[in-house]
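Box S1 | Example of a co-folding query
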Amino acid sequence: MCAVVGVYGSENASKIAYYALFAMQHRGQESSGISASNGEEINLIKKRGLVTDIFNEESFEVLAGKCAIGHNRYSTAGKDSVLDAQPVFARYKLGEISVAHNGNLTNKLKVREELIERGAIFQTYMDTENIVHLIAKSQAGSLVDRIEDMIQKIEGAYCLIIQSRSKMFVIRDRFGIRPLSLGKLPDGGYIVASESCAFELVGAEFMRDVNPGEMITFENCNDGSVTYSSKQLFEADPRPCAFEYIYFARPDSNIDGKNVYQKRLQCGLELAKESPAEVDIVLPVPDSGVAAAMGYAKGVGAEFLMGIVRNHYVGRTFIEPTQQIRDLKVKMKLSPIKHLIEGKRVAIIDDSLVRGTTSRQIVRMLKDAGAKEVHMRIAAPEIKYPCRYGIDTPTQTELISASFTPEEIAKKIGAESLGFLSIEGLKNALGRDREYSLVSFDGNYFAGGCAESLNCSGA
Ligand code: AMP
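Box S1 (continued) | Returned holo structure for adenosine monophosphate
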């Protein structure tokens, strides 16, 4: 998960990065950071907490300069400490660099062991530190050559933004697993961000997505203007992550030319075709199931109602570590509108089912509110495998669909029935013009890594 942003050639680079990170807060709430270059040095501020809590007016005086890169962290690899916040800054032979990374490197441990063998010391458990070391240890003469050297040695999912004192480099892995878009700022500068929703807030015009396997280099021209050049480092083999569309990205973002809200609606329509339920009303699990539930309601011809209210002052339930607290948090977060539900046959739609905690609580909540029947529908296929490419999924034993059939899970969660979207249905919804990363559903670890262990070939 995580969000990255890079701004180049703008007077207000760090403020623009700040607003972009604010727009992408949903991609990570653990820590946030911005580094900015004024041409002579790179300054960095990073802390644990939310974007609005970390930065103030004074921060932007420290973060002066026309190039800024930033990061929101949601830990998937590494630990929960301020040292693990990004960007990662370093001084090395050629000067100063700062790196922000979204994704997960699957050969992280192997590379790290080799580096340690050669005398490298690490401050964190993050794969991003590998990247800094590989650049610093490369024998190539220029930074761009060192980056190309480094990129040959890493595997997995990555969107990288690398800042030197004068340039900015942006790289997306050859599968384009995580999203990354390029935009133009009103003052002539450029912005690169994980999600296009960030562009709206800063008034940037969407230009295009960064291509899988592409490196874009931003630099200053002699006349004071800025320019960028593109190089295809690897042949593109696009497989954007299906889970970005299903759950993770904001509905107003467009990823690789496809609007997230539209895709969720489509998933709901497909689900209605594959797994219709005879019901009086269709409710979403707010907010994650809203668009899919609208599609489902349309598909089965039942009334769509916002029958469950969400308390927005509670964070996402996944963030809490213990099962006991997770259970309580679902109740703190969601509350039913009884008079809409009483005596009704209800279809309740969520975007995904992971451990089954949310579904169990919600079915109970609806039954307590007087629902006659509760039919749970999930607008995604069964999650049977942990993601190794940057989505925070638990171990395989915790994934309820890895061990139980939909009928068994329906019993466990107390629903009259449970239906999932099939993998084929998901492909229909997302569009059959390309492949997708479906690893959580089909266990195809095409970019390295495997289900059993974080340590088998990386993390
Ligand atoms: P669970 O309660 O464990 O079955 O998780 C399912 C709920 O968590 C659904 O409401 C999803 O919207 C949400 N969810 C799915 N994947 C993630 C994730 N990687 N991080 C946080 N929440 C998630």
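The chain has a mean pLDDT of 93. Residues 3-239 form a domain with the Glutamine Phosphoribosylpyrophosphate, subunit 1, domain 1 fold (CATH 3.60.20.10).
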